[in-house]
């Protein structure tokens, strides 16, 4: 049912209705009212036009039209010519009229864009000859139709059409340009107003939606008589209504800022089945390619991600890394072996191609769509319009016949003689090669075209001149196309002006080829009144001016550049080419860009700050769905085509899912770039199921699967986990790097920290099980990587596990100390140092001996400052911990080394005294540290002494050698420290004292030559004792080995020689008190005599 326009009613002052005389031509595009006098019986004529119709409206039975009944009901006539203006709000072209027509009334099509808005009114005769069976009035085709009925006036002279028509057309084009510029100025001014003002007072609305589209009288129901219901119930009308509803929904959703990403994806189910039913790809890529890919992705995080949000920096980094990745993958694809045999022409790589080639093909497309940047001399790098990117991609990656245009240009005797000339021309234009199409058309060589191989020339004389004239005119239009200069911002003013000019050129072509039946103005006041002609007359007129085949092909060419959907789809060779061609050329609505701009300025709902514009992505998805509606469908059995379809409709999850069935490195790289570029939608937050609903087990029983890991965790994270598990099995990837290193780096870039740590923990458990005492290089790498990724707990666990291995399976105590310090385990560091201190006290000699020191422990003892400074570069806290805890053992070891330098007959008395005093100073420092936790006889482990209190009695036993010597070795301050220690150990709780006493007995019993100090006695005491060292199986094993293999040890002295193996600790303390009293008295006497200087 054709939409109808309500003609304004005549003013109420008219005394009687009258109908002007009409000279009517079927299919005419205008109305003509002559100046003949009126003979209407009653009242003055409403216009100067003549009328032979009696007063009053015709009856319903006469015309049978609801439109005419509506006019009769109001008692008013049609007013044209010089009639009084209709009341405000009731005019034919009033933009503010309410759009109250039902949906079914607007299904005959909408008017063209505001630039070329033209209206046609059919004149119907009094007998209703042009009223169809449904009561509808057929409107002529719109001006932009490619094929029109040729209706020239009977007296039209084709030789005299030139100047007047061209002048009128130029004036018409200038008028349309001025109107469009005014509309753009109004739209830009409206952007600064708020939403309410725009809705209430905008004058640049949709003319069609604001019009009244039915002929019912005001106040009547929307649905009219039964004939209207019958029309709406026809299958064709139902389909049109459905399409109209979809279009209104699409426009309204676009109006409020919704993007295509939020809508349902047509191929989502197919794509999901494609990658969920296939196994994930195995790592078959060479390690060099994997490492280079990983290096580029790491650069992206190092260069683009910072402490502050820098959009420009991130955008540049994304563009550079994406370009480098595409180049790297394409280079590897070129080295892959090509499949043998021939394959059918298809979109993308053939089915026999390597999976990596397919993945690189899709990754190339999606990365170029979102992160292509163009170098400009003025503004630096900027994102080119998406149509330019898509045309370039299609030219390079989807061009089945890349040399076809060149071959036809070189065809002899001329390109126009080739049977593929017009198809190649339109295809080049469709693919965005405007210059190539223009050059081919300009160099066509029409004079060489023949009707057959040996026939006459097809175009001669005037026909040849006309062909050349309009072919060159078409070339001029193509040269003016912004796309010829690589300007594919299809919503700017240059494109608006180009489309107006192209439409004018097409109108000139149609006017010349078909005659003056197509009007130049929409005012319905032309002086030209065409008359009906027969089909034979049309054929003669068309053939006499321009060959019809040329006319048809030029119309198709104009159809492409003007964005006619049918012309574009008819030219395309496949659905992919049709989608990109329609995306670039389609002129769907001239006001759509303004609406999008206003919507975005109000809502600021752009989904990405880095990728392609949402406007273009919306347009690409809409173009793809239009192609699908035209029955150009992807091959759902070809995963490459399904992936491209997912790209077009914006389903990035499906794209990444399909990519990981071909290549995990490419899939992960694309996922990470998409996440940083904000064009990969984040996963929806999992929602708890209602308590009264079915749980997952119930749903599984019913055959309903719950949400997958991709949906809960995000497809990026699940893909990274799969990639990391594959990488962990490659060892090594290079002489400097192992697969697990890359795996941990990959896991560190996951979005969910909990899942990342869980997966790293699983990987570490498997990796730590393979470590031995020679895995320090591996452990250092693991610690560095985990620490850089912020996984401190896993770094500490790795260091502690390796330190345990060293303590149990080797004598590299210095290395074990450092790894325990890296794990920040103070208790484990203390445990190793207690081992070394206890064994040194038990043997009364430094342990391990000098010749058995491992390099790390030797550096800590001999080059303490330099070594700790170097360690602090790796972990300052660990270096500080190790330096503080090592001081007690190092001082005790220094005491033994000074002692062993002493010899009764080998040095002077002065040197011997000096060595004794140095040794006593070191020993007193160790005693003070051991006494630190029991100051005042109260045990307090929070003082965190570096030497255990369990060693205090043994240390005091070492001090018994220095008492009662002449001259005195012990100073007053040292006496004070020793006496305080004696008081504290005797007043502390019994548990602490008993532990000290047991260790003292073990030390005394281990002295060689003492009664009860055999290895068997030592082992019995060590296994039955309750002192701290007996609980350490590592210490027990080392002591048993050392005792069994102990050789002769050279000592400067051994304090145990003065005691029996059965001596009690109380006896030692008593002697120590007496000796210190004697030494103190000797010091007082020496001071009194003035002889003592200490």
Give a quick rundown of the structure.
The chain is mainly α and 1094 residues long.
Give an overview of the whole structure.
This protein is mainly alpha-helical and 1094 residues long. Among the domains are: 29 residues; 173 residues, no CATH class; 145 residues, no CATH class; 65 residues; 132 residues, no CATH class; 150 residues, no CATH class. Helix content is 54%, strand content 1%. The protein has 44 helices and two strands. Strands 1-2 form a two-stranded antiparallel sheet. Strand 1 and strand 2 form a beta hairpin. Helix 33 runs antiparallel to helix 37. The longest helix is centred in the N-terminal third of the chain and has 29 residues.
Task: Give the SSE layout.
Blueprint lengths: L59 H4 L2 H9 L87 H29 L4 H7 L24 H7 L2 H21 L12 H9 L10 H18 L6 H25 L19 H17 L2 E3 L3 E3 L3 H12 L6 H6 L11 H10 L3 H9 L18 H19 L13 H22 L20 H11 L2 H14 L3 H7 L3 H11 L6 H12 L10 H16 L9 H10 L3 H8 L4 H13 L19 H6 L7 H5 L1 H14 L10 H9 L5 H16 L7 H13 L3 H18 L3 H10 L3 H18 L11 H8 L1 H11 L1 H25 L8 H22 L21 H8 L12 H16 L2 H16 L9 H10 L8 H13 L19 H25 L5
Antiparallel strand pairs: 1-2
Helix pairs in contact: 3-16, 7-23, 7-24, 8-9, 8-25, 9-10, 10-11, 10-23, 10-25, 11-20, 13-14, 13-18, 14-15, 15-16, 15-18, 16-18, 18-19, 19-20, 20-22, 23-24, 24-25, 25-28, 28-29, 28-30, 30-32, 31-32, 32-33, 33-34, 33-35, 33-37, 34-37, 35-36, 36-37, 37-38, 38-39, 38-40, 39-40, 39-41, 39-44, 40-44, ...
Tell me the distance between the termini: 123 Å
Q: Using the alpha-carbon principal axes, give the shape.
A: rod-shaped
List unreliable stretches of 5+ residues: 1-162, 191-216, 222-229, 253-262, 516-532, 594-607, 1011-1035
The share of residues in extended strands comes to under 5%
Mean pLDDT: 74
Q: How many runs of DSSP E, i.e. beta strands?
A: 2
Helix share bin: 40-55%
- Specify the biggest β-sheet: 2 strands, antiparallel
Strand order of the largest sheet: 1-2
Enumerate how many helices there are, as a single number. Answer: 44
């Amino acid at each position: 049912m054709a939409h109808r326009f309500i003609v304004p009613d005549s003013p109420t002052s008219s005394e009687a209705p009258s109908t002007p005389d009409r000279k009517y031509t079927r299919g005419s595009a205008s109305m003509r009212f002559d100046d003949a006098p009126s003979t209407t019986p009653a009242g003055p004529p409403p216009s100067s036009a003549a009328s032979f119709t009696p007063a009053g409206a015709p009856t319903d039975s006469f015309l049978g039209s609801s439109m005419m009944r509506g006019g009769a009901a109001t008692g008013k006539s049609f007013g044209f010519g010089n009639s009084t203006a209709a009341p405000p709000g009731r005019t034919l072209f009033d933009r503010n009229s309410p759009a109250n027509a039902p949906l079914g009334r607007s299904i005959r099509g909408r008017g063209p864009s505001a630039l070329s808005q033209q209206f046609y009114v059919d004149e119907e005769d009094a007998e209703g000859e042009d009223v169809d069976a449904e009561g509808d009035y057929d409107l002529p085709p719109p001006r932009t139709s490619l094929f029109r009925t040729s209706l020239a006036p009977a007296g039209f002279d084709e030789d005299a059409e030139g100047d007047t028509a061209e002048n009128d057309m130029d004036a018409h084009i200038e008028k349309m340009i001025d109107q469009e510029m005014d509309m753009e100025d109004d739209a830009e001014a409206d952007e600064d107003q708020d939403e309410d003002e725009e809705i209430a007072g905008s004058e640049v609305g949709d003319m069609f939606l604001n019009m009244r589209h039915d002929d019912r009288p005001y106040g009547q129901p929307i649905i009219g008589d039964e004939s209207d219901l019958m029309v709406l119930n026809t299958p064709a009308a139902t389909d049109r209504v459905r399409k109209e509803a979809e279009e209104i929904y699409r426009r309204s959703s676009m109006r409020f800022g919704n993007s295509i990403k939020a809508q349902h994806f047509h191929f989502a189910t197919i794509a999901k089945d494609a990658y969920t039913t296939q196994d994930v790809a195995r790592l078959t890529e060479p390690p060099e390619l994997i490492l280079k890919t990983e290096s580029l992705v790491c650069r992206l995080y190092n260069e683009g991600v910072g402490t502050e949000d820098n959009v420009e920096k991130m955008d540049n980094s994304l563009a550079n890394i994406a370009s480098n990745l595409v180049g790297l993958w394409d280079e590897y694809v070129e080295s892959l072996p090509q499949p043998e045999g021939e394959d059918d022409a298809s979109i993308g790589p053939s089915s026999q191609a390597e999976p990596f080639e397919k993945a690189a093909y899709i990754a190339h497309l999606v990365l170029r769509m979102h992160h292509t940047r163009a170098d400009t001399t003025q503004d630096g790098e900027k994102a080119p319009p998406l149509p330019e990117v898509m045309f370039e991609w299609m030219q390079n990656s989807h061009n089945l016949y890349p040399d076809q245009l060149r071959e036809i240009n070189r065809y002899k005797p001329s390109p126009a003689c080739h049977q593929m000339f017009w198809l190649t021309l339109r295809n080049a234009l469709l693919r965005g090669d405007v210059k190539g199409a223009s050059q081919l058309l300009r160099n066509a060589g029409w004079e060489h075209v023949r009707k057959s191989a040996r026939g006459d020339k097809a175009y001669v004389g005037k026909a040849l001149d006309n062909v050349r004239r309009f072919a060159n005119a078409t070339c001029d239009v193509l040269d003016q196309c912004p796309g010829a200069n690589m300007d594919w911002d299809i919503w700017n003013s240059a494109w608006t002006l180009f489309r107006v000019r192209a439409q004018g050129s097409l109108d000139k072509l149609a006017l010349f080829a078909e005659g003056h039946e197509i009007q130049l103005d929409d005012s319905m006041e032309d002086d030209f009144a065409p008359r009906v002609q027969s089909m034979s007359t049309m054929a003669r007129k068309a053939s006499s001016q321009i060959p019809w085949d040329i006319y048809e092909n030029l119309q198709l060419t104009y159809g492409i550049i003007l964005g006619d959907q049918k012309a574009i789809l008819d030219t395309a060779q496949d659905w992919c080419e049709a989608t990109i061609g329609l995306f670039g050329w389609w002129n769907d609505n001239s006001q759509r860009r303004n609406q999008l701009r206003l919507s975005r300025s109000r809502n600021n709902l752009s989904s990405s700050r880095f990728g392609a514009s949402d406007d273009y992505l919306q347009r690409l998805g809409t173009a793809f769905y239009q192609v699908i509606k035209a029955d150009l469908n992807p091959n759902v059995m070809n995963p490459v085509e399904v992936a491209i379809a997912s790209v077009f409709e914006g389903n990035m999850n499906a794209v990444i899912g399909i990519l990981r069935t071909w290549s995990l490195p490419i899939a992960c790289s694309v996922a990470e770039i998409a996440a940083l570029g904000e064009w990969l939608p984040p996963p929806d937050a999992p929602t708890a199921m209602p308590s009264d609903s079915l749980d997952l087990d119930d749903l599984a029983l019913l055959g309903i699967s719950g949400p997958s890991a991709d949906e809960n965790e995000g497809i990026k994270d699940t893909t990274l986990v799969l990639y990391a598990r594959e990488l962990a099995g490659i060892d090594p990837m290079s002489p400097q790097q192992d697969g697990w290193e890359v795996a941990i780096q990959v896991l560190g870039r996951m979005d969910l920290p909990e899942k990342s740590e869980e997966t790293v923990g699983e990987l570490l458990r498997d990796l730590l099980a393979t470590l031995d005492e020679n895995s320090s290089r591996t452990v250092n790498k693991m610690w560095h990587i985990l620490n850089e990724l912020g996984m401190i707990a896993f770094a500490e666990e790795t260091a502690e596990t390796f330190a345990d291995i060293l303590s149990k399976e080797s004598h590299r105590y210095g290395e074990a100390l450092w790894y325990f310090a890296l794990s920040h385990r103070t208790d484990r560091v203390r445990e190793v140092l207690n081992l070394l201190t206890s064994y040194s006290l038990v043997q009364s000699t430094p342990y391990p001996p000098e010749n058995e020191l491992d390099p790390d422990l030797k550096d800590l003892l001999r080059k303490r400052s330099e070594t700790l400074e170097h360690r602090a570069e790796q972990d300052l806290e660990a270096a500080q911990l190790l330096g503080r805890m090592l001081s007690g053992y190092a001082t005790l070891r220094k005491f033994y080394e000074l002692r062993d330098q002493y010899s009764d007959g080998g040095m002077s008395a002065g040197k011997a005294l000096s060595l004794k005093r140095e040794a006593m100073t070191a020993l007193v420092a160790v005693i003070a540290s051991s006494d630190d936790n029991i100051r005042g006889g109260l045990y307090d482990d929070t003082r965190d002494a570096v030497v255990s209190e369990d060693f205090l009695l043994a240390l005091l036993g070492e001090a018994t050698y220095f008492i009662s010597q002449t001259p005195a070795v012990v100073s007053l301050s040292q006496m004070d420290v020793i006496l305080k220690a004696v008081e504290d150990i005797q007043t502390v709780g019994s548990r602490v004292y008993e532990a000290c006493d047991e260790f003292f007995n073990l030390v005394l019993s281990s002295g060689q030559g003492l009664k009860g100090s055999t290895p068997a006695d030592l082992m019995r005491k060590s296994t039955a004792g309750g002192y701290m060292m007996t609980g350490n199986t590592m210490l027990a094993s080392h002591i048993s080995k050392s005792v069994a293999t102990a050789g002769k040890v050279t000592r400067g002295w051994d304090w145990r020689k003065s005691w029996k193996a059965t001596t009690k600790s109380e006896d030692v303390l008593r002697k120590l008190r007496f000796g210190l009293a004697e030494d103190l008295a000797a010091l007082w006497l020496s001071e009194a005599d003035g002889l003592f200087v200490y």
